[in-house]
Amino acid sequence: MTNLNYQHDGLESITDFVRWGGSIFAKAELYFGHGTDNAFDESKVLVFYALNLPMIIPENYWLSRLTTQEKQAVTELFRRRIENRKPAAYLTGEAWFAGIRFKVNESTLVPRSPIAELINQKYEPWVNPETVSHVLDLCTGSGCIGIASLQAFPNAQVDLVDISTDALEVAQANIELYGLEDFAQVIESDLFSALQGKQYDLIVSNPPYVDVIEMDALPAEFQQEPRLGLEAGADGLDLVRRILAEAPLYLKEEGVLIVEVGVSQYYMESVYPELPLYWFEFEHGGEGVFAIQKHELELFQELLDARVKPI
């Protein structure tokens, strides 16, 4: 890594520090992908967090001068971002998803799923938002998908399920942040193991789906995230196989399963060429999210059961 000088002599305004941060981040060859996709947006996130500012401010605010203490706070965040390769969300303890701010920490992945677009569309036409009463966010992490989905479903209860107790503590904190205790609950479970007798109108999941080769090649920023939330065997489908085989039992008759598999879409199409999977196309980026209905899964139940283990 290039040696960097964190001296900020002559820098005074918000504009100065955002520009400086963008420059040194680019020089340090940081990797972006946890809410921002470039050095200057990442710099803005950290500067505005340190100054306790909303992300949109009047134009004249950009010329505001920082105090000595504020300059030190911004510089320390820049230093930690570069030297530790921590994503900005872990430095600030928060991330935005589907227009909502969520608490995050190193026990959870940083929210970034393209499923946010489906939430904004109320998952239509796959479900009728007015009639959805039970939603499952499987492998919930911070709870972002399930909690954000409540925006789409005025009459729904959502279960936030994860195997990680540490992640569920974060999900519970996000429930409490928005006073949603009457609408959402966390459940510790290895996929469906603790959900006997429950059925859902919609099961949505962003499970671990990184294959072994890709896992070893991930940039340092992604290596900061919990391996439990990323790693999923030789082809990235260890958990997805189980989800497909077990989901029909937990879906209502008109229920729908939506799963993100990212770059493991290639393996999905190779392992399950028979399945009538619908692959979404996203306007704002992202890939590898499919939908399938309960009755379609049931038609292939024998095949799904047979392929729970890698071939």
Describe the protein's topology.
Elements: H1 14-27, H2 39-50, H3 68-84, H4 88-92, E1 94-97, E2 100-103, H5 115-120, E3 134-138, H6 144-149, E4 157-162, H7 165-177, E5 184-188, E6 200-205, H8 212-217, H9 220-223, H10 238-250, E7 251-260, H11 265-271, E8 278-279, E9 289-293, H12 294-299, H13 301-306
Parallel strand pairs: 3-4, 3-6, 4-5, 6-7
Antiparallel strand pairs: 1-2, 7-9, 8-9
Structural summary, described in words:
With 311 residues, the chain is α/β, with parallel strands linked by helices. The chain has 2 domains: 14-92, no CATH class; 95-306, Vaccinia Virus protein VP39 (Rossmann fold, 3-Layer(aba) Sandwich), CATH 3.40.50.150. It has helices spanning 14-27, 39-50, 68-84, 88-92, 115-120, 144-149, 165-177, 212-217, 220-223, 238-250, 265-271, 294-299, 301-306, and strands spanning 94-97, 100-103, 134-138, 157-162, 184-188, 200-205, 251-260, 278-279, 289-293. Strands 5-4-3-6-7-9-8 form a 7-stranded mixed sheet, sandwiched between helices. Strands 1-2 form a two-stranded antiparallel ribbon. Helix 1 (14-27) crosses helix 2 (39-50) and helix 2 crosses helix 3 (68-84). It starts with 13 loop residues before the first helix and ends in a 5-residue tail after the last helix.
